[in-house]
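Just wondering, does anyone understand these tokens?
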Amino acid sequence: MDDEEDEFDFSVAEPSPRQDVLVEYEDIPAIRITAGSIFATVMGFYAAFVALPIIFGGLFVSSIEGAVDSGTGFGAIIILMGIVYLIFFVTGITFGIQMAKGHFTALIVCTVLSVISLIGTIVFWLMGNDSENAECAEWDYDSGIFGECVEYESSLSSVPIGGIIIFALLIAMNVSMLFVPKLRYQYY
């Protein structure tokens, strides 16, 4: 054998550190309590200022229908829609409280409720009638003293920017609680 071929280094190498080390994170209950309280408070706000006015508006429409004897039942439909919203938001309050207690399934449910709320906000905005908020883009002054608007363009006044920001922030909060290991450790 030739000495040039046997140039292998058989020295003992340092062992590499293991990659499967279990990391114990400290328990920080203020994180989950704050997140759950914020979620429950936002859902309570929407229950009080969205669902209940819809129910009361439906009661008002129903009483007017009863006085006029129209018999359309439109007020009952509005009341049922308000009750569905109220059930949705009370569910959010309930699971927000459970999230503050540290239940992982409540965190998942709150994330899903936030996504549903954001999608609902965007869908209702896109399906809404924007004609009362439209701005006149072109006037025809030949049709009368004051003229007539012949072309309208949509304004941004009807964009529910507050709802979009609130639900996007709730989604970001919940998703970070789900996927950041130190925050995920706060739930069981």
Notes: The radius of gyration is 29 Å. Residues 29-68 form the longest helix (40 residues). The mean pLDDT is 87. The CA atoms of residues 48 and 86 lie 8 Å apart.
